[in-house]
Every structure is written in structure tokens, then in C-alpha cells.
Amino acid sequence: MAAEGGQNTPIAEAFFPRIVWGGGWAMRIEKDTMTPYSSSVNGKNAASARSQNRGRPCVVFQPHVHEGFIEGIDQLANALRPTLGPLPRTVAIQPMLLHHPPEILDNGATIARRIIALPDPTADVGAMLLRHTLSKVHGQVGDGTATAAVLFQRIVHEGMRYITANASNPMRLRYGLERSAAIAAQALREEAVPLAGREGLNQAALSLCHDPEMASLLGEIFEITGVEGMVEVEGGGRRGLEREYIEGAYWHDSGWFSPLMETDAGHHRAVLDDIAILISDLRVQDARELAPVMELAVKAGTPNLVILAAGLSESAIGLLLSNRDAHVIGALAVRAPMTGTIDRDALEDMAVLTGGRFICAAAGEQLGSVRLEDLGRARRAWATDKLFGLVGGKGDPRQIRQRMAALRAMIGKSVGDRAEQLRFRLARLMGGTAILRIGGITETELTTRKAVAEQAVFALRATMESGIVPGGGTALLDCQHALASTPARDSDEDVARRIMGRALEEPLRVIAANAGYSPETIVARVKAAPRGHGFDASQGQIVDMLQAGIVDLAPVLECALRVAASGAAMALTTDVVVHRKRPPESIEP
Amino acid sequence: MDSSFKMHASIWSFLGGLSGGAVWSLAIAPLCAPAVFACTQAGLYRSSGSSPVNVQGWERLPNAAVDVTSVALAPDFERNRSLWIGAQGGILASFDGGNTWHSGVIPRPATRVTALSASPDFARDGVVLAATMDDGVLRTEDSGLHWHAWNFGLFDPSVFSLAISPDFARDGTAFAGTARGLFSSHNSGRSWRELDFPQDAPPVLSLGLSPDFARDGMIFAGTEVGGLYRSHDRGKTWLALTSNLLASCINALAISPRFAQDRTVVAATENGVYRSTDGGQRWASLGDLSDVMCLAMNEALTVAGAVDGGVYQMEGIPGKR
Helices in B27-135 by DSSP H: which ranges? Predict the structure, then answer.
């Protein structure tokens, strides 16, 4: 019972992640009074008392809510602060299994994902609020989590100070913060410049992945595929990086029904040229059902027939193979793409690409009613046991164009995974995929590098749409001008402007501190410099950031700013926390 | 030789009638002899004149393929003697002016090559682009020995016309006219984006770029049913050049090498050959040729190939007459 209730201290300590600060970090606390924040805002005893509530259902009121939130937010944000800037330090995560090496991370999103609970239940709520905010930023733009964390942390600290000292109304403060974030975001958009050419892409990629080889390949890939192209990141078998460009469109979660259909044993693939294709989600049990379709294709003089279906019986496969072996007609039977359920969108896309018609089981259609014009055409089809690809579909370009326009409109209204799925569909219609294969000496290196590449692909695409701004916290600092020049509606909004203005300095302060410089001095020097000039932390100089190639990606910063402001406002307006008997861990995402 | 071609006594001089029906493509070697290459279904022909303006006869190159649909010369042909021909099912490269040929490796199944164009910076980059009926644009970086499909964004694989920017080495710009649209590339033909071209106008059968494209951004696009279009901003916006003379299928376009000064454009249609000396605003008939399939122009010579196999020449640039 004691263990269930979480009151047994040794078990609780073993269960909940604890953050241990390194010697260098502790020294920085002494040197820099601003960062990181102390996690014992109201004394160790209060925190200790709160932590004893874990496992007990209870209701917590102010000021304990804000105390707990501050403690939790500080713990999580301070874990991310060392990763900000060009001289990041790493965070080691204890392995889940014995004899496994610790996970060494410098990626804010992954670090946040690894911290799933804190021992103090109220601090845990605060930390998880921040964690979910960071997850949202990562989900939307793939980067900017460390920036969002320090912005969130500073807004909460400043906000609580004003609420406590000035008796500011939290709700009005919230509206003010959201309006201030919108003004700053607009200023960021106005300051953004488009990525120019291959060199610009390389530079933006470098600022995302900090890996010159990877940046160069990503620059080349995106120059070729464009913003709407399909780019996949895969773990490769070799040590270095490789890229491959695949012509046409292909689908995962598909593949041949039988390995006997393989035509290229060297590559374990089946390849057929000049094909007619039946696109369906039917389940063919009786081989005789296939006969009319095969007759249609033979009569039309088509050398090869591809059958796409949800299921195909052994006898149906046998019929196709026997006709292939008798040189009547080449045949390939492929599973319809399926992610849990049949991917009907993919089948409809295939129909548009090939000029065929999707024969839909749900509409009661059968193979007997298929006409020659229902079959699609393509220059080439290929399949492996898991993939199916088409090259040179003979669909009407006007219909392809219309479908692409519809998908673009849907992408504009979608976010997250849904938008990503739509992008993949659009890219398939565009024709062509780039694959970046990541190698590594160890599994850990491969995994880490792959995560960095995936994140860079995501953010680089967003940047091609929105542009770049001066990096190193400069663009955020420049937003102070926009805040100052927009009049506040009331005193609470004025307070919100001051909070936001101070928070906009925070990324630069952290970058300076991480590089061993005085944050106050650096902020003062950058403010005195011309607009667009910032602090090059690796050289210790004030430079024109765009010219120096130190850039931030406009969509990343904008998202980090908006989401951090919104999340922090939520924390500031929370007055009461209700604890459950058995609080869940935040394991998703 | 085929004797069934029509004789046209006009400002055009008759250079000869070639076997194999329509002359699909012509190329003029810059200021040297032999001067003109022409391709028909019978194969590739080379003129045997003593100078570019004195073409005396034709010889069919025996080692080249038959059913040749396009021919292109290297910009520095005089030095490296490189040329390429596209035929039904393959692309051949010659590096000795057409005497011997190498078959290029192309993606299978083979398709019909409709147009070829070599990079103006060919000596350095070795890039040649080939338009095909079924496989979009093929690209080589090794002077035509190996060809690969580079069709990112080119969702219409039936390409009828190609044009490469004179400033290709710097801007990497190329255009591809297809059955249903017009596409541009800004990375040396490795990916394509559809241009905002009037959707009811294609197929785009012919393209012509101003020699001063880097400065004026001028492109002409001739279509099958929509007439002639002009863009002065590198393809962003298009203007239909309305003229009754250009109402029919525009098979070929030729832009004066001195376009910046003389503003001369020549368009070949089913009904005749026309010229404009004001960048496409006003047009006038140029002789009484009809059914011209292809045109080629340099400083010294303008040549036209007709559907009946006849090849005609006009000395100099038409606008200067």
C-alpha cells in the first residue's frame, strides 16, 4: 500500500526522474544571477511537503499552485537551457536498462520528452504544462523547443512577479500577453527574408542541424524537390550520409502479394514496363473473377498488368503467375496501401496519376463490371515486399493539377500529422522522392543523427515557406521595437508588454550565458547595435547576423513565441490544482 | 532524295529536298562548313557547302540512326565537334561532327525524343537536356553517354519543346513545353515547377528565349491552338500576342541572335512563316513557305524545314532585309 500510494521514499525516488546538475552548470548559477532559476522558490520544506501529496487526492490553492508551477517549470526549462545557442552542452539521460550507455542529448524536444514526471505533484503539473507546450512547438515546426522553454519560463516568472507585487489581473494579463505575442509575431514575419538559392538553403540547414555534411545534402535535396517535394529520412547501412532520388511516386504499407512475382532478384524487386493497372480495394477470392480484367488487358495489347487489391487468394495469384509464365501477359499483384484500414486517398491519387478509376468495394463494384477505360496506365510499376511504386503515370495532367490544387488548399487548413500526410500525397503527385540515408558507427549515433535530420527536414520546409530572420535571439530582441510602438489598451496590457519585452531578451541572455559571457553586457551591446546586428557567440562579436549566416527560421521562432506565450498565460491563470489519487505519467508524446 | 517537294521561288532559297518526309529539326553549325544538319524519318543529313551561306548539297550520315526526330549541336561545335540526335527509342552522341556515333544509355522502356538542347556552358558542365514524349526530361552530365530522368515537379511527361537560358551557367534556367502546360527549372533541369501559363493554350510546341534573357527575361511560347505568347519576366506572367497570322499551330520559333537590337522573331506555322521586328507586337508574312516544321537561325543564315522534306534558306537575319 505504501508503494502504491507513493509514500515510500526510496521507491518514489527510483521511479521519478531526477535531474542532476553538473559542476559546470552549478558554477554558472553562481556567476549568473539571472539564469538558471532556482528551483527552491519558497524553500525546500514547502516543496518537500508538496511532494508528500503524491498519490493523495487533494485540492491545492494559491500561493502553493504558483510555487509548485515555478518549481516544475524551472526544473524542465533548466534542463533545456544548456542546449540553446551555437555552443550547446549535452544532457545525459539514465538508460532504462542495465549495461546500456546513457543517452546523450542536445535536442530540447527529446530531453523534454524523456522527463515524464516529477516527484512533487504540483510541480509535476507545471512541468507537464511546459512539456506539452514544447511538444506542440516541436509538432508544428520541428524545432525551437529550447527557445520556447526559456520564453515560457521568463513569462511565467515575470507574470507571477507582477501578479504578486502589482496585483495585476491574471485574465487581463493573459489577453495582453496573447496580443503582445501577436504583435511580436507580426514583427517577425515582417523582418523575414526569403531563402535565396542553394547557398541560402545550405545555410538554413546548417543552422538547424549544425552538421555541414548533412546541411549540404539537405540544401541539394530541397533545391531539387522544392518546398512541396517528398523527403524521407532513413537509417542507412553505412557510416556516412547518402541521398537517393527516386523517380515517380511510391507507397509504404503496400508491396507484392507473393515473392514469386519478383523479376529483379539482385534488387529483390518486381519491375514491369508499360503497364495497365487495376486500382481497387476488392478482396479477390475466386481466381475466375480476375479473368475478365486479364482478357481486357490482353485484347488491348497491354504487355503487363498490375492488380492492386486488398486481398488476393492463392488461386488468383496462381492464375496471374501461370499466365505470366506462359507469356500471355506480365503480371504483378500488389496489396492496396493500408495503414490500419485501406488508404482510399492513396488509391484515388493513384487513379488520378494513371488515368484509371478506383474500383471501390464499398460502392458495391466488382471486377466483372470493369471496362478497359477503368484501367490506369503508367510507364513503369515496381514493387518490393513492402513498397509499391509508379513511374510516368498517364493520367490527365489537368486532373493532376486540379488534385494538387485541392491538396494545397487542404494543407493550408491543416496542421500536424494531417498536414504532413497531405504533403506526402501532394509530393507523390509532383513525381519524385528524395531519400536521405543516415549512417552511424553506433546505434546511438545513428538514432541521434536521424532525429536531427528529421527535425531539420521539417523545419527547413517551413522556412522555405516563411523565410529567415537574424539568428541568435536577435530577431526576438528586435521585436521589442514593435511592442514599444503599439499603444497598450489598459494598464494590464501595458504590464503584459513589459513582461513580453523582457521575455524577448531571454534567448539572447541564455545564449550569451551558455557561451560564458555576461548576459546584461551582451544584451546592452546588441540593443545599441544597428537593427539586424546580433551576438555571434562562437566568435564573441557583434555582427550583421544575416551576412554572417547566423539565422533563425521565421516559422520556428513565430511558433515558439506564440505557443510559449499561450502556455505561460495558461499557467498564470491557473489558480487551483486538483490531484488524483494515482496521477498518470505524461508518456505521450 | 525525294523529288516530290514543292518549289518556292521567293525570298527563300531552296536548299534541297530530303528523303523521309517531314524535316523535324534543324541545326546550324556556327560559321563553319559543313553548315547545316537536318533530320527526317530517313535519318540525319549534313549539308556539304563550302560556307554557311553557300550550302550546295546534302549527304545522309550513314552511321546515324533512322527516324531521327531532333538534333542539337554543342555551343562550341567548331572546337569539340559534339552533336546529339534523338530518335525513336534512343539518343546518340557524336564527338566528331557526325561521322561516328555513341548510343546513350537511357531509361527503359525507350521513348520518342522530341527536342534536344545543350547547355551553353557545355564545355564545363557537359549538360544536355532531352525532351521526350513519355518520360519527361532526360538529363546527361557526361556529354550524352548516360541519361537520367529528372522530373521532380514535371507532372506532365509529354514534353514537346525545350529552351535553355543563355545564362544557364549562372541561373540554371530551362523551360519545358508540354502537352498540358509550361514548366521551368532553375537548377539546371533537375526539378521543374509549373508556370502560370494559360491553361487552355497548350500543347506548347515551340519555345524561344531572348539571347539577352538574363537582362530582359523575354520568352516566347508557341502553342498548337492558342497562338503565340510572350513573357518579359522569366515566365511569371504571359501576354497573348494576338495576330490573325498566328492563329494556327505554331510549329517553330527562332529568335534573332541580335534580338536586343533588332527585336526580330520568326514564327513558323502550318500556314506560313512570319516575322516580327518589334518583339512580337506586329507580324508580317515572310515569303510564301507553308507547313514549316522547324527553324534555325544564326548571324549568317536562317533555315526552314518543311513537312514535305524541303529545306530552305534565307541569308542573314530576316528582320534586316
Answer: 77-80, 122-125
Q: Which helix (H) or strand (E) holds A554?
A: helix A554-572
Q: Which of B109, B111, B187 sits opposite A224 (nearest CB)?
A: B187
pLDDT tens per residue, range B12-44: 888 888 888 899 999 988 766 557 899 998 899
Residues of A in contact with B157 (CB under 8 A): 379, 392
> Which pLDDT tens digit goes with each residue over A440-467?
788 888 888 888 888 888 888 888 888 8
Residue in B151, B152, B155 nearest the CB of A397: B155
What single string gives the DSSP state of each residue in A120-177?
Answer: SHHHHHHHHHHHHHHHHHHHHHS--HHHHHHHHHHHHHHHHHHHHHH---HHHHHHHH
Strand duo A230-235 + A433-438: pairing: parallel
For residues A276 and A306, the answer to whether their CB atoms sit within 8 Å is yes
The answer to whether the CB of A337 falls within 8 A of the CB of A347 is yes
Q: What is the pLDDT of residue B138?
A: 95
A276 contact partners, CB below 8 Å, separation of at least 6: A297, A300, A302, A304, A305, A306, A375, A376, A377
Sheet with A230-235: strands ordered across: A230-235, A433-438, A241-246
Beta bridge partners of B278: none
Min distance B199 CA to chain A CA atoms (Å): 9
pLDDT of residue A431: 82
List Cβ neighbours of A471 (8 Å cut-off, separation of 6 or more): A207, A534, A545, A550, A551, A552
Q: Which ranges in A170-209 belong to alpha helices (H)? A: 170-191, 197-209
Looking at residue A5, its pLDDT comes to 36
- Whether A277 and A306 have beta carbons less than 8 Å apart is answered as yes
| pLDDT above 70 coverage of chain B, percent | 92
Measured between CB atoms, which of B149, B155, B157 is closest to A429?
Answer: B155
Which residue of chain B comes nearest to A224, CA vs CA?
A: B191
In contact, A71 and A47? CB cutoff 8 Å: yes
Q: What pLDDT does residue A442 have?
A: 81
CA-based nearest distance B185→chain A, Å:
9
Burial A140-178 (b: 16+ CB within 10 A, else e): bbbbbbbbbbbbbbbbbbbbbebbeeeebbbebbbbbbe
Give the integer Cα–Cα distance in Å for A450 and A504.
Answer: 31
Q: What is the 3-state secondary structure (H, E, C) of A414-441?
A: CCHHHHHHHHHHHHHHHCCEEEEEECCC
Q: Could you tell me how far CA A361 lies from the centroid of its own chain?
A: 35
How many Å apart are CA B53 and CA B306, to the nearest integer?
A: 19
Is ipTM over 0.85?
no
* pLDDT for A9: 35
Q: Which three cell numbers stand for residue B252?
A: 517553330
Confidence at residue A350, expressed as pLDDT on a 0 to 100 scale:
94
Cα–Cα distance, B38 to B24 (Å, whole number): 8
CB contact at 8 A, B93 and B44:
no
Q: What angle do CA B196, B200, B206 make, to 5 degrees?
A: 75
Other Cβ atoms less than 10 A from the Cβ of A360: the count is: 16
Please, are residues A91 and A146 in contact by the beta-carbon 8 Å criterion? no
DSSP string, A10-60: HHHHHHS------HHHHHHHHH-SSSSPPS-TT-HHHHHHHHTTTTS-EEE
C-alpha torsion A443→A446→A450→A451, nearest 10: 50
Taking any CB pair shorter than 8 Å as contact, residues of chain A touching chain B are 198, 223-226, 228-229, 245, 247, 273-274, 379-380, 391-392, 396-398, 400-401, 404, 429-432
Set of cell numbers at residue B256? 534573332
CB spacing of B181 vs A397 below 8 angstroms: yes
Q: CB distance B181–A431 less than 8 Å?
A: no
